[in-house]
Q: What sequence folds into this?
């Protein structure tokens, strides 16, 4: 599975081994560039995060919260619900057109 170009604040915190608050502080301080997606979701470029991690300027913290599989699945359905609903609607319309 290919890695996404943009990652969440939680994934960034896991990569940098810091808290999510520390990631927000890094964004506020201009060390990381964040992007708003749909004017709601905050995402960061994976390449920028990896560059910051490899520079060694970040002090690791031991308070990172794991991003569980259940949260990943929940986020997947939350971000893609439009596509699921659209697909179901298209299938229903195709059924109505061809079988009625």
A:
């Amino acid at each position: 599975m290919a890695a996404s170009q943009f990652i969440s604040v939680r994934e960034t915190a896991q990569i940098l081994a810091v808290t999510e608050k520390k990631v927000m502080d890094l964004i506020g301080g201009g060390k990381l560039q964040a992007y708003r997606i749909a004017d709601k979701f905050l995402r960061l470029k994976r390449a920028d995060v990896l560059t910051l991690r490899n520079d060694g300027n970040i002090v690791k913290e031991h308070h990172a919260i794991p991003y569980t599989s259940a949260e990943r699945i929940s986020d997947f359905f939350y971000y893609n619900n439009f596509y699921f609903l659209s697909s179901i609607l298209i299938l229903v319309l195709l059924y109505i057109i061809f079988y009625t």
